[in-house]
Amino acid sequence: MSSNGGMMLTGNAAAAWGARVSDVDYIAAYPITPQTEIVELLSKWVSSGELKARFVEYESEHSMLAGAGGAALAGARAFTATSSQGLAFAFENLYAVSGWRAPMVMVNVSRGLGMPMTLQVDNTDVLSVKDTGWLQLHAETCQEILDFIILAYRLGEDRRVLLPVIVNMDGFFLSFTREPVYVPSVEEVREFLPPYEPPHGIAFSERELAYAPTIILGHSYTYFRYQMHLAALKAKEVFYEISRDFEKIFGRSYSPVEKFMLDDAEYAIVSMNSFTSIIKGAVKRLREEGLSVGVLKINMFRPFPVEEIAEALRGKKGVAVFELNLSTGGGGIIYPELLKALYHLDERPKVVLDFVGGLGGKELTYGEIRYMVRRVIDAYRGGEVSPHATLLFTEEDTRRMIADMELAGKSWGGF
Amino acid sequence: MSRYRGVKDIPEEEYVAPGSALCAGCGAEIIARHMLKVLGRDTIMVNVPGCYAISTLFPYTAVKVPYVFAVFGSGAAVAQGIRDGLDILREKRGVNNDRVNYKVVVYVGDGAAYDIGFQSTSAAIHRNLDFYFVCYDNEAYGNTGFQLSGATPYASMTSTSPPLGDSVGNEYGKKDIFEIWRAHRAPYVATISVSHVTDMLNKFEKAKEFRGPKLFVALSICPTGWGASQEDTVRIARLAVETGMWPLKEAVYGEVKHTFIPRRLKPVEEYLKTQRRFRHLFKPVRRDEEISRIQREVEEYWRRVWEKELNR
Amino acid sequence: MYRFRFHGRGGQGIKTASRIFSTAAFLEGFYAQDFPMYGPERRGAPVAAYVRVSHEPIVIRGYINKPDVVVVGDETLLYDPVADPLRGFGGGVLFVNTPLNPNLSVDGEVVTLDLTGLALEHIGRSGAISAGVGAVACKIAGFSESSMVDAVVRELEEIGLPDELIEKNVVVAKESYRGVPSFDLDSLPSLSESDFLETDIVHVRLDEGEVGIATIANLGNSAVRKTGNWRILKPIVDYSKCTGCKICFAYCPDVSIHMGEDGKAHIDYDHCKGCLICSSVCPFKAITMVREVKVM
Ligand code: SF4
Ligand code: SF4
Ligand code: SF4
Predict the structure, then answer these.
(1) Within an 8 Å CB–CB cutoff, is residue A231 touching chain C?
(2) Which of A294, A374, C67, C272 has a Cα-to-Cα distance from B274 of 20 to 30 A?
(3) Is the per-residue pLDDT at C192 higher than 90?
(4) ipTM score of the complex?
């Protein structure tokens, strides 16, 4: 990347810049690690007048999201950011905002949900809100965070969609990592992102409305719920349209999935978010070791890009799914979605195995990545297959655990 | 000088339509009617789960002003977003229509005011949000079948405080939401009662003068939950005022003034006896201790008021 | 299997009536299943309850589309489009609570009784008809009187009625039971029909913009709902006494009084729910009340 227009930004700063160049009108805030830096920066810009917007710090994420949604319903372009516990606390309001069909953008800085409490990454927070009516874009790099925020506004505000969007980044691994980010000017972004005037907004609707009346009967409830589903599905088509415009103006292009060294590979690793960079790096080296493997990164989790995944994995011998999440009693959360995409394929991969790793920011090692690939190759050749997720837990992890358990006063002999 | 001197002055315009699904004789409808008569056409109502939610059941609504339904605890937070959103549209984006100047009124029951929405309301007051917050207080969770809330008075029967065995029904007292709000130093806080319509109209009118939070708690007679006769809604509300159990007052920037001061109090049992929720205080045996506890508390309250406001 | 569908208005105890009936069936040795369906509406809005009774275990649940017996607790519901009590009815037994002798052209047996009158006479409350409705259903099904009484007592205890009220309800129940005939349900032509609905599937498309969003644009359209048929008692203005003081207008919760050009109070009977607040607040005693008579 050229340094022209580029800045060294953390993921959090990139998110704040994304909101700033999108010329947001309203920022609803509440502090939570590792997200706080985003709203601190925005508050600074609003105070200094560099960003003309209203900044309100609420008393909880529950209210923060209600307020942001209320402003979006009024007709203001609204932004907010949160993480883990905050996302969970706001949970019922996720449904309220999407049900109002109030487009807005929320950045989630992914972090595990207590108890036990952690500050570190675990995508279970954002994946557990996959059914709330919010579209989801997941970023691997700081540039993607900024770009996805701009795209998310255009996507959600499209009158065929009218849904809110979550842009996810991993806590620490992206939120606190600096790398060069190209920041477009407000004018450039304005060319891509027209002013927000929702057809049903309080200030703009043709007629005055009663929003979200209670619904008693199943047929009307079904109709409106299903309209949200159809709008979410439509969002994928709209995404292609707007990313063409995006490329024309900014020279970067995005699609719901990204392929890395995948087309000529026999095996694939499926991944999302920042750890994909680690996997990409490892895959380059695995290629040198003679393993024919590539990467499929999922950028868009809602709507789930079923067709793109099927196309990308068609004809592969085997697939390893790397999951930085864990649905207790279920396993990885991406795995069943992925199988849905593959099931009706004639040339579907013979084996698809699920792996859980990186939880709580645990390092994802080269050895773990090679292990996933070896397991898939072995399974393809007749070795062990299982629908259950395999945990990536290393000997080194065990040694450290033994030491910790001893300090905690619990006798434990390891595995 | 009061703008409304009697029922003759009640504005003709109605912003509530007939045909709602609320119970016959419901106090919350009387309050909504008069509230909107004064606030007028350019008002947007934020409502949350509670009895008044059934004013608006798809595809029907009895509310003639725009209406937004929010989750139970979020009435004040959504009001904040709407107010801020409309303001920023005007100030930043130059939108200049009637809509951006809507008055925002949050109309909720006591569950949302005293309990689940308490935090968000307190925070909105603290942020000096320019809005009206009106609680139709029927002293329990009426919408789910009358369970105990923070607004339920001492000794009331509810479906989760049944007066069985030695129990008096609700063993806790009612939260003093007026004082809690007043402690926030809101510009205007008032109590109202469905029986005193002129007082109610004048208070809504007066509230319009202030920028910032304007907070109302209305005694909202609930014939269904209270086990009272529907036709007695107004009579019971009047008894609540005349026995001193429901003082009518207002506080401007924290300064309290009573808008109706009874010179002598009717005995509380005249009020209690009108409702099945207090029946166990009289039947099968009269529970003098509880009745006099309620009487004593009311008298203590008024003794202080009489001293302060009548120098008596 | 016998399919009983109960219709009433919120507050009339239709759910309790259906439970009395299904408990009695259970006591008679049947398999039974009861299921009430009501929205968040209050007193007065249409309510339905479904009871299935069978010699075999019951492997279906939910709505009853083709009832063998329809029990209508409130005659005003007969032509109410929301309640639609005659939907799917044919060849069975229809019971209507009414003091009138209606000439109903329906395919099936029609039975009537004035349960409201009985409730007023013995209990003193017109709304207290659950025991009567339950008892009538028991009789139609041919259950024994003792099972019926047992069920009435159990269900009324369950909802916490005091003993003296339960006794009065038993009196009403027995009179109701004796006031209607019993039927050989196995001979009903409706019995042979399946309750399953044949339906066609359509493909739902995306409706863009405001259309597909849950909103209402007709603000104040609740006026199309005629809540006037909730009334049991009807307020009537005596124009020789009305001074036009507006007090009733001030207190009507349901915007059903307007001041006419003659300066007097006029009641909108399409919407007046019959709370009688107007009557109680009128300083001139100008509003009286009469029992509502509903034309079928
Ligand atoms: S339950 Fe009470 S508050 Fe609720 S609608 Fe009925 S009367 Fe009104
Ligand atoms: S309260 Fe009585 S006198 Fe006054 S307008 Fe109504 S009916 Fe007439
Ligand atoms: S009875 Fe009187 S107060 Fe009640 S709804 Fe009817 S007109 Fe209004």
Answers:
(1) yes
(2) C272
(3) no
(4) 0.96
